[in-house]
Write a structure and sequence with these properties.
Strand content: over 45%
Shape: globular
Structural class: mainly beta
Number of helices: 0
Strand order of the largest sheet: 2-10-9-4-5-6
Radius of gyration: 13 Å
Number of strands: 10
Length: 115
């Protein structure tokens, strides 16, 4: 299964974006799906996860601003990002947090937040 993130772009501080992750096959077998980001010169950060049971986790840096959702029927994962800050600028990837061999990351989608 190949994952492909989309929906990134350039937005001003305080703006919103909705990222989408389309899977080429079923993600039902993957217990936990997530979104990760990497900014230039920084370590990769796991920002949000969504389990099959409906549980979610968020990095402290995005808590209260980002919302992850998952639609197994459509093989999609979403990341709603509100109140964006310049420090949210990064390439965002969707990934399998568990069952990591079940799906491959795509190229990611660039999010740029201008101050």
């Amino acid at each position: 299964v190949q994952l492909q993130a989309s929906g990134g772009g350039l937005v001003q501080t305080g703006g919103s974006l909705r990222l989408s992750c389309a899977a080429s096959g079923s993600i039902f077998s993957i217990d936990v799906m997530g979104w990760s980001r990497q900014a230039p010169g920084k370590q990769r950060e796991l920002v949000a996860t969504f389990s099959k049971s409906g549980g979610t986790t968020y990095a402290d840096s995005v808590k209260g601003r980002f919302t992850i959702s998952r639609d197994n029927a459509k093989n999609m994962v979403y990341l709603q990002m509100n109140s964006l800050k310049p420090e949210d600028t990064a390439v965002y990837y969707c990934l399998p947090v568990t069952n990591t061999g079940a799906a491959k990351w795509g190229q990611g989608t660039q999010v740029t937040v201008s101050s």
